[in-house]
Known about the structure:
mainly alpha
Amino acid sequence: MKDDKKEVSRREVLIGAGTIAAGAAVMSTGITGLVSKAKASGDAAYPYKKLDVNEVGRIAHETYFTKFCAETVLTGLFKPLAASVGEPYASFPLNSVFWAHGGLMGWGTACGTLIGAGTAVGLITAGDSKKVTTSGGRAPVAVGEAIINDVIAFYASENLPQYKPAAGQAKYEIKNQSISDTPICHISVGKWMDKEDVKFFGIERKERCARLSADIAMYTAKLLNEWADGTYKPRNEPLANALDNQITSQGNCSECHGDNVPTAKGA
Ligand code: HEC
């Protein structure tokens, strides 16, 4: 009983004053339920229950056409958790990451799928302060950082999109996959548009980004499921790009610098 009280006050602090509706929703889900689910992931704020990866992909693909990349990936992950866990997922303002579409409001920087995935992973793993790295890795990081680092590496190194919508769900039949070598929206979508020979403002490109959103949401769910099982191990060395190049970077230097890749001071 004492523990339950402690849980409530922590929740109230996390939610912040003034959001009475959210607080009331937590009360109605039942505090004991919240505590036991919280135990499973080690985080009281955003208790995690293992996701059905295929359901995540289906929700993400269908959500993309109205919500675009960032909100779509967050929806793919949080909508099933709203059903299986309840609060705080049920009242989470998914549109709080909408702005990240088009690589942050069309500026073509980081792909919005990664902002959505990173937001989910950050919230879900916030209570897990365990540091991890690869064998021989130079920088131990929080487990959530390692997970999102692996999601970014997957984005940059895989042939995408891979997701195949169920019959009747595709708005266009995609012919090509491409490897971006970077998490940058502009380069990722540009390489694919070039290969597929389509324009940006068309249903063909939207179908590609819808499938890619499903891929990223599904891969994130897969790693979160491993984390919940206690079997997650980082696949890629955290912060390797920055440490190797002595500047925040990706692996595709020559695409912009040609043969004259500068060497950073300190390298
Ligand atoms: C998306 C394009 C792009 C990619 C990819 C890229 N760079 Fe750069 N980089 C730039 C631009 C633009 C600048 C600004 C300075 C300039 O014009 O040289 C810059 C600046 C730098 C600088 C600091 C300026 C200098 O001359 O010392 C270094 C060092 C550097 N890049 C190294 C790298 C390395 C190493 C990689 C690969 C790991 C890389 N870059 C990948 C575009 C890129």
